[in-house]
Amino acid sequence: MSVEAAALLPVVLTLLAFLAQPACVLYTRTVMAATAGELARLAVTFRGGEGEARDYALRRLGAVPDLSIFHKGGASDWEVTLDGPDEEGRVEVTLEGDVRPLPLFGALVAALGTGEGGLVELRVTTSGDLRADWLKGGYGDWIEMWG
Hints:
Elements: H1 2-45, H2 50-61, E1 79-83, E2 90-99, H3 103-112, E3 120-129, H4 139-146
Antiparallel strand pairs: 1-2, 2-3
Helix pairs in contact: 1-2
């Protein structure tokens, strides 16, 4: 019985590692996608500066654990890019972060040449026209109308 257990234990642990890494990356990408969507909707109505919008995004990205298999680095290592809104309400948000895969995946990443320094870059981009088509004019026009 102990010989079978000794052979089975490494197999089970390897399978757990193969399931853990994709789950961690999926969680990180899910939080990034939700944050990008919230930031895009915020950008259409927000009158503050880009620094405040970045702080908003970093608070949301704080839900990602500060472990390298989820995200390498702290809050300052996230790249947040916000373009827009333009006159039509088009907004584009890009969030980028790095993940250091578990050793089994690290060898695969290095062999495929997809990671730099053993890191895998995660990038989420959200874009869309978030201003309603029936809404005409700008902020000044609406103030004049209701003023």
